[in-house]
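hey so i finally got around to running the thing on that chain from the lab meeting. sorry it took forever, my laptop kept dying and i had to restart like 3 times. anyway pasting the input first so we r on the same page abt which one it is
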Amino acid sequence: MTDHTISVNKKLKLHFLLLLIAIMIGVLVSGPSLDSMSFGMWIASGLSIAIITCVPLLFFIPTILRPTTSGLSWYGFLLLAYILGGTIKLLGPSGFIGGLLILSFSLTNFAYVIMWLMPFKKAAKAKQKTEEN
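ok and heres what got predicted. didnt touch it at all, straight out
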């Protein structure tokens, strides 16, 4: 492994954790208003929605711990859904802060996935070029 890959691995792990935290906070902040229900009910409903929102990401914990090209490719596709969800929440009436958190950490995760996969794409292109000649 190169120094670049090891550095990106550390950043990817950190930003994966930050994305999970951002989803938890983002859903709580942009959920129903605190005046609409009791505090305990508000926390319970917010946490349950946040956990359901995080479930697809939890399937990628092994990929984040030991990255592979195919695993990170699929993780990148999943991140596109979170980017879309963060954008929708950001543009919604009460979800600016939550949407901004989710969108920003989804984008940083996506950028690190692209950075991790870049050397493999270059190697695949070089291999294809040599096979053509």
